[in-house]
Specification:
Blueprint lengths: L4 H5 L8 E5 L4 E6 L22 E2 L4 E4 L8 E5 L8 E7 L2 H12 L4 E9 L6 E13 L2 E6 L3 E12 L6 E8 L6 H8 L13 H11 L6 E12 L2 E8 L11
Parallel strand pairs: 6-12
Antiparallel strand pairs: 1-2, 2-6, 3-4, 4-5, 5-6, 7-11, 7-12, 8-9, 8-10, 10-11, 12-13
């Protein structure tokens, strides 16, 4: 059964991936480490992916045959994170439930909270960022920039500022829209590039930071996802939180 403990404990999880939580309806959340793919780029299993099982792009689900089972198991992917980003990814074991939660994402009924480490310090402790964001996709690559496209909104709150040189700030980012590379572009646009961002970041500062700390990852983490959803005539509350990676706590 998709709502059983054994279903979740026996998932063919990828490297470092853990189950954060799940409910009795078959809705769950996984914590993805930086560098792990949300799904393979081909139909074949990929050891670098969220699950080490075949992925079906059309249905957006992983499928595999558990040991001793006569029916294949499926786990539906409800959202994605870029490979360098760590944190919460939602999944569902029921296709109808998956469709319902995906609709909540489309209707912007899902609250997402990220933590980000950036070079520089915002001029104000709390800001609402609004930008027109254009996204270009081709040859398997995604590139975004401001000017044209769709509106992107994010609330940014300063959590802590370092005494380092150059200064660093730990931010809480709450996107109100879900554009590709939204947070990375909006930070860079304000002179606050994400530490470790190899696409929109400050490459010289990244190299100096890596030499000083030994850390080369993108410092963007999907901390928490929460929402209410209707299922089988009842309203359910779902909250998933992925622990902040230890490297984020090194800020002084």
């Amino acid at each position: 059964m998709a709502d059983s403990e054994s279903f979740w404990s026996d998932l063919p999880l990828g490297p470092g991936v853990t189950v954060v939580c799940h409910d009795s309806n078959g809705l769950g959340a996984l914590a993805k480490p930086a560098g792990v793919l949300s799904h393979p780029n081909a139909l074949e299993p990929d050891d670098r992916a969220l699950l080490t099982a075949p992925y079906q792009p059309e249905g957006e689900f992983y499928g595999w045959m558990p040991p001793g089972a006569t029916v294949a198991a499926k786990l539906y992917l409800l959202n994605r994170l870029d490979s360098p980003t760590s944190g919460v990814i939602l999944v569902a074991a029921d296709p109808a439930l998956a469709a319902s939660i995906r609709e909540l994402f489309q209707r912007k009924r899902v609250r997402k909270v990220y933590q980000a480490l950036v070079f520089g310090v915002p001029p104000q402790p709390v800001q609402l960022w609004r930008d027109w964001l254009r996204v270009e996709k081709g040859d398997g690559q995604v590139r975004a920039g401001t000017g044209g496209g769709l509106m992107a909104e994010t609330q940014a709150t300063v959590i802590r500022v370092s005494r380092a040189h150059p200064p660093l700030a730990l931010l809480k980012l709450e996107p109100r829209t879900g554009r590709s590379h939204q947070l990375r572009v909006q930070c860079a646009e304000r002179g606050l590039p994400l530490v470790g961002d190899q696409t929109y970041g400050d490459f010289k500062a990244n190299r100096e930071f890596a030499r000083a700390t030994g850390e080369r990852r993108l410092f963007l983490h999907s901390l928490e996802t929460s929402f209410d959803y209707e299922w089988q005539g009842r309203t359910h509350r779902f909250v998933a939180k992925a622990p902040v990676p230890p490297e984020f706590t090194k800020l002084r």
